[in-house]
Amino acid sequence: MKQILPIGLTGLPGGTHMQFHDQANSYIIEATAAALHVEAQAALYASLLKQEAAIINRPSSQRYTQLLADADTRRDNGLMVVLNLIKAHQRSIDDEKYRAAAQLASVIAPYNTAYSNSYMKETAEIKGLVASLRSAENAPLVALLGIEAEVDLLDEANTAFEEIHRLSQEDAQQRQTLEGIDTKELRGQVDACYQQIVLVVNAFAIASPSDELDAFIDSVNGLIYRTQQEASHSHSTSGSTADTGTDTPEPTPEPEPGGGEDEGEGGSPL
């Protein structure tokens, strides 16, 4: 009768641990959980492995950080263009444009430093500015100055930033979920579920052997052998380099020019 061999799993590196269980799970899928009599255990096993796969390479930084910065710079630039065009027309020698700009000066005054505010506050303020400039009272003045296109571009840039910010919030929630998972505890749960599968398979291999069980056991035992061999190889090569018998002594360095006095590190200022 065939039996799945024992293997120590707690000491495996994270990637090796994940790869072992992922391969074992692929054998379960190939054989089918029903043929192995592990339907309940297989479902839990797959679910736990999905969690381990998510945390095995946790991102070290938020993926949207640079995208947010770029989108924020774009809308900042758009905001400054709108504000500066209105301010520039306050010096216009065209009387109509001068009066239009003078009236809009009070509209834009609360937003002169909006670019320096927090992301969410700036988003709200730009929305307010665009709404004011598009109001029935101010839209004709904006049209007279010929800056409707700039206002539209500012609105589009702010909307684009808002969408990226929404995605970054979803990403942050996912990161918090991953960071809340205890890796050691999760690995213990994965190992325990695997051991339950082994117990069931080994029991049925004795009580009711089948070709499917035998093939599965052979596959898992092959995986165990490979994993143990790789772990053994990793341990044997992780220490100092083996003596090949061809080592030669390091050459004696020549003295530095200008005498042997050590002037210390960092002699020249940055």
Report on the architecture of this protein:
The model is unreliable at 236-270 (pLDDT under 50). Helix 4 packs across helix 5 and helix 6 (119-133) runs antiparallel to helix 8. The longest helix has 32 residues, at 148-179. The protein has helices at residues 14-31, 33-36, 39-56, 65-89, 95-108, 119-133, 139-145, 148-179, 183-207, 211-237. It is 69% helix and 0% strand. It contains ten helices and no strands. The protein is mainly α.
Task: Provide the fold topology.
Blueprint: H1 14-31, H2 33-36, H3 39-56, H4 65-89, H5 95-108, H6 119-133, H7 139-145, H8 148-179, H9 183-207, H10 211-237
Helix pairs in contact: 1-3, 1-10, 3-9, 4-5, 4-8, 5-7, 6-8
What labels would you give this structure?
270 residues, mainly alpha, 69% helix, disordered C terminus
